[in-house]
Protein 1
Amino acid sequence: MVLNYIWISFFIIGFLAALYKLIVLGETDIFSTIVNGTFDMAKTGFEISLGLTGVLTLWTGLLKVGEKGGMTGFLAKIFAPFFQRLFPEIPKNHPAMGSIVMNFSANMLGLDNAATPLGLKAMQQMQELNPEKSKASNAQIMFLTLNASGLTILPVTVMMYRMQLGAADASDVFIPILLATSISTLAGLIAVCIKQKIKLFDPIILLYLGVLFLGEGLLVWQFSNMESDKISTISSLVANIILFSVIVSFIAVAAIKKINVYDAFIEGAKDGFSTAVKIIPYMVAILVAISVFRNSGALDFLTDSLKHLLTIFGIDTDFIPALPTALMKPLSGSGARGMMIDCMKTFGADSFAGRLSCTMQGAADTTFYILALYFGSIGIKNTRYAVTTGLIAEFSGLIGAIFIAYMFW
């Protein structure tokens, strides 16, 4: 229901903004820009879904191999004490636990291409346990919120763009991003735990979180002693070695247990293909609405109004040029990435705005995109409070990014 209201609002606000530009500013081409943008985004939505088909087919096939060989179950057991407290609805040793672990692991390594199909598989498995198929379960909301928080330990993509755009030290945003995304994850976790009455101060939860943040601290210490060009190279290498090692271990263990690996892969791959087709309408719907909101000038009007308001109260507005990245982030990952690149090109990769936009890009993931993708793939219509907790996580990270940027730069 919330997504429905937001979707309608984007079109209405976009239409009003376009009328203002036509009547007051005399921009006669504004409506053609909007209409062309809707066609382009509809095509983009289809292409994204089509692009997911191959990688989704691959990973659902590999997950089936891992499931039959027992590897996903083994990984689930390692994190079972932690995730059983966050996802009490999921039975012990259920395959969904393995997919959840794999999804979070891929996200933390910055491997988006692997994380998305793993997340879709986890949602499908949780849907099997969901008594009300059109209504999001507590476990699904917890999973979506933590995905929206976008906890990423190795922000390889952001550092790569900074390097390409001439940053003197492409990795100088590494620690700020790590801090901002940690804030996002903690805020989302706390919000869902309060709503679902989960004991956040459970000793097991605190132990696992403590180990995670201790690991982050050691990683920060290790990388702080490296040259910037080595950080991006080494982090990318380590992430991909880990990923490929997981693939090989899935296949090897299944083969040792005399599982027909090829047949298992094909069985899982068929599910991936059908899932990719199902998400096309949801992707087109959300991306077209975002296009209208952006191309109508509504987004620019929002940032300009905020800058004017802050100026009146004498508040520093150095962060305003990076704000389009933050405002676009909940709506479109590619849109936010475009805003980040535009900010660095306009103000410089090493400018305050340029660095802040990169920190915002890495601080969280894309709530509405994830919601449309994950819930759309399983036909969830009643999202309950998923949008609220997802945005709490996302905006906490983005606001944290602003304060952290002022501390660092």
Protein 2
Amino acid sequence: MNNMFSAGELAKMQKISKQTLLYYDKIGLFNPSYTDPDNGYRYYSAEQLDYLDTILIMKKIGFSLNEIKKYMKSYTTENSIAFFHNQLSVIEKKIQELSLIQNRLEHRCQQVEQIYSKQASEPIIAMTDCTYILYHEVSHPYGMKEISIATKKCYAQALNHNFPIFFECGVSVPLERILSGRYVEAKTAFVTTENVPSVSNIIMLPKGLTASIYHFGNYYDIDSSYIKLMRFCRQKNLKIISSSYEFCINDYITSRYQEEFITKIMFYVEEVSE
């Protein structure tokens, strides 16, 4: 046919699949100019090429197929300007979100690389900056199943409400449980975040003196690192004044092997005079 293209020819020309053209036809976005009644083959006119280019460009800009379909029913210069200005706002918001994600992911990579390469498991004393955490209570009997459920609640709340998160989760274990040897019975699970004043289950871990240690390997062996850290505090005349805060540095997000897991254990402490 003169000035007509088959679906295969048009797909090859535009570097898209025939299935894409079939789908566009199915949803009423881009219909063939002619369909052969005998074999069902679809043909497109030369005049439709610019129309398809517009659809593909709009999609590249970030519009959904439904938005493109609605737009192309009746578009003029005037409503196009308004439409594009609105999309610029959408793109700017996405750029800001991606920039935050990029910064936090870079931080996570650097953190894992530095700690994993050193494999240092000796306790340290440091002045820690304040950190905000979004938490949920861990249900009885406070096992890994209950911890996982509470952690999922944290991530679900953060993602559903678009709270800023740093791809880092953890748990808090009350000091009395630790002193009685119940090292893995967490009271709360949390994800690190930023201050959102209107959210009641976001709290600030204050700036303060801390003692910490990195536990390498299976989480169920963490008691050895707790014992080492508490012994260190006694030797340094440091009084533990908080629950423990465990931060998952290397976990199921970055490795499937538990022997590669890294957990930071941290207590707030104060110096005691001899």
Protein 3
Amino acid sequence: MKKDKKAVFALLKDISNILLTVLLGGVALLFVLLGLEYKSLKFIADYYEALVWSAAALVFVVLVCYVIFFLLKKQSVYRLIFCGIICADIFALIFYGICATGIIQKLNSIDALREYISSFGSVAVIIFIVFSYLQVVILPVPGSVTVAAGVALFGALPCAFYSFIGIVLGSVTAFAIGRLIGYKAVCWIVGKDDLDKWLEKIKGKDYLILSLMFLLPMFPDDVLCFISGLSSMTWPYFLVMIAITRLISCFTVAYSFDLIPFTTWWGILIWVMLAALVVLAFYLVLKYSDKIDAFIKSKFHIRGRKHNGEENEEK
């Protein structure tokens, strides 16, 4: 009798999990469709029907995959899909909000964003800092658009300073979210033991690679901060590293927009060459990360942490 009750309870729990996931998928689709209805951008207006059907098909495929992996008891896979659906809900709500308010039209253009920020008059500086902050935490806005608008509004030096304030505050927030929520979320998906083993394997290298990625403007700030929160990176190291790398990148990007225009062929050529150099530099760092890490440790006499077992043996 008890076994029957447990079986019924387990079945009801499985059904409720599937229904909840389907409901969350439907919420994401609903807000995406509501956002598309505004047809705020020319691209959306031109391909409205294709975007609607694509969104519906994508949600359907994701939900079918969830059900299949759930029935196959592939826990890590269907939990990962579930987390993806939660993220889709958040971004769908943001997408609907920026479409309904008309902000998406301003975010899509440097001139429109500049006019939007300058319309706030004396508080334009605060609005710009808030935009820089949100760019890291939630807004899907390329940093180059924000900086370009800031340079046009305030000039290179003030823009770099204001961007630095907003981006550092946003980076600290994202790191805290990654540290407090990200670890628990990944533990729930893959299991604590497996996650801890994986983090132990990359321990030490994550400092070097993540620091370089923060320094280069081509990598997404928000994702990097969340990943840093999940890594072995400590709070003091992150605060020092983010202050140094953001200071360098903010001033470099701001003055680059001021000195290297996109309106000339030579300006575009320089930007393409710089992007190629960034990709090459990052590839070389990844390829020789072990040697670079060993070189830095040898120069600064840094020793890796010993495992508990090794310490006990020495004792």
